[in-house]
Amino acid sequence: MRVTVLVGSQWGDEGKGKIVDILSEKYDIVARYQGGANAGHTVEIGNKKYILHLIPSGILRENVICVIGNGVVIDPEALLEEIKILEENNISVKGRLLISHNAHLIMPYHKLLDSIRESGDQKIGSTGRGIGPCYTDKYARKGVKIVDLLSKETLQEKIKINLEEKNNLLKKIYDKEGFSIDEMVQQYIKFDKQIDDCITDAAFFLNSAIDEGKSVLLEGAQGALLDVDFGTYPYVTSSNPTSGGASTGTGIPPTKINSVFGIVKAYTTRVGHGPFPTELNDETGNKLREEGAEYGATTGRPRRCGWFDSFLVKYSNLINGVEKVAITKLDVLSAFDEIKVCIGYELEGKRLKSFSTDLTRLYEVKPIYETMPGWSENIEECKSYYDLPQKTKDYLDFLSNQTEMQIEIISVGPKRRQTFFVND
Ligand code: GDP
Ligand code: IMO
Ligand code: MG
Asked: Is the peptide bond preceding residue 277 cis, with omega within 30 degrees of 0?
């Protein structure tokens, strides 16, 4: 039995999709445990580029069974579109995708409310996929779940209760049109017919599979600093991307999870608003964005860019219990004569002892940098750790020492082949 949680260690977009694709070759099952179609996980195989939003990236390995866990919020439109794209590319989904009956559904009013709230005073930089409003309803115990699709009466009743509230809010507060109950019920019944074969008690399936000796890779979306509890609140997503979320989001108890694997980008990026101590609002930041093609996989927005923050990653590793990591996008740093690494923060002339997500402090802190010499060599074709220039190895050693993490995988380009294990 081998159960591994894979987490993003920064603010998302670390390259989780690519590394799940690499690791899933050796797993029987890949499961998503939180988030929704706000995620954009890119996998490049040969000349093909796939962007997965809801379906685990393991779907690209034909022997892998994929599971969407109860902690995920599912947008029917996004899911059907994703299935369609995969099947058009001859990737079988039916029979290989299971969906938890306990997962919550994103409803049309969630997406509308997300965009309305985003245009108000408190801008988070949400992806507009309805994630926040859907989790709000989940915790308010008003959510519509996959299991509700099984009975038209239940579905109708739940939608009715929600629309009474949401239509009122839309009309009276936001001066918008409300939604029709009948249309929405029909839309979701049609969706049910298309995914009916995939619906199951995923917690039972996963636990039975583990008991039979099957291996499971749990694919996190977003990243630790976007976690609703441990991230830079309120500039976060509405779920728990950190490793603890893997248990509640699938029903696999902590006692069955063997390890936590972190995905760390060789520099830092963030999409949306909120503090970002090592952000570079200058030519160097622009160069990181262009060299790293840092544009959102879901929304196409330019990502904010800055140097690697080891103070932040050390915190993230602590919260996640990360043992080993993959470091991605190392090739992007070949373009820089010198590379900086943040090793701590200073606030009002004093060095902070530990990372804090307290916003008033995070906006004010000054990063303390160590400057390292760059390597000019192109490393995109390196096939092993030994092929890397000495200065690249020095950079990796430095990150490893600062964050107390063990680097197991190195990624030097977006393609499958541009990846190697340090000990190979
Ligand atoms: P995720 O959300 O964590 O799965 O990451 P995204 O897919 O949103 O963003 C990562 C981007 O970097 C994608 O476009 C990947 O194809 C690309 N990528 C992944 N690893 C590497 C790498 O080592 N080098 C380069 N240059 N690109 C990479
Ligand atoms: P992956 O899985 C990067 C960010 C949004 C916004 C905040 C809240 O591809 O790493 P939401 O739509 O969740 O209410 O937005 O979180 N965000 C991400 N940033 N990668 C992601 O996913 C993200 N998912 C959400 O930009 O700042
Ligand atoms: Mg992404």
From this structure: no
pLDDT above 80 for 1: no
Is 41 catalytic? The answer is: yes
**201 in active site:** no
Structure confidence at residue 299 as a pLDDT band (50, 70, 90): confident
Q: Is the CB of 8 under 6 A from ligand 2?
A: yes
Q: What is the pLDDT of residues 359-406, one digit of tens each?
A: 999 999 999 999 999 999 999 999 999 999 999 999 999 999 999 999
- The preferred substitution site among 21, 33, 127 for testing ligand 2, maximizing ligand atoms within 8 Å of CB, is 127
Q: Where are the domains of the chain?
A: 2-100+198-261, 104-194, 263-421
Distant-in-sequence, close-in-space partners of 246: CB < 8 Å, separation ≥ 6:
5, 33, 218, 220, 252, 257
Question: How many Å lie between the centroid of ligand 3 and the Cα of residue 120?
Answer: 25
What amino acid is encoded at 81 in this protein?
A: E
Count other Cβ atoms within 10 Å, centred on residue 60: 23
Say yes or no: CB of residue 35 within 6 Å of ligand 1: no
Token representation of residue 218: 């749990």
CATH code linked to domain 2-100+198-261: 3.40.440.10
- 39 C-beta closer than 6 A to ligand 2: yes
Q: Which CATH class is domain 263-421?
A: alpha beta
Cα–Cα nearest to 37, from 109, 122, 132, 125: 132
Q: 55-108, pLDDT tens digit by residue?
A: 999 999 999 999 999 999 999 999 999 999 999 999 999 899 999 999 999 999
From the CB of 38, is ligand 2 less than 6 Å away? yes
- Residue 113 pLDDT greater than 70, yes or no: yes
Which protein residue has the closest C-alpha to ligand 2 atom 15?
Answer: 126
Cα–Cα distance, 110 to 116 (Å, whole number): 10
Ligand nearest to the CA of 294: 1
Taking the C-alpha atoms of residue 341 and residue 148, their distance in angstroms, rounded to an integer, is 50
Domains 104-194 and 263-421 share a fold: no
Pick the ligand that lies closest to the CA of residue 327.
Answer: 1
Closest residue to atom 16 of ligand 2, CA basis: 237
User: Whole-angstrom Cα distance, residue 163 to residue 147?
Assistant: 19
pLDDT at residue 337 above 80? yes
CATH code matching the domain that covers 104-194, chosen among 3.30.390.50, 3.60.60.10, 1.10.300.10, 2.170.130.10: 1.10.300.10
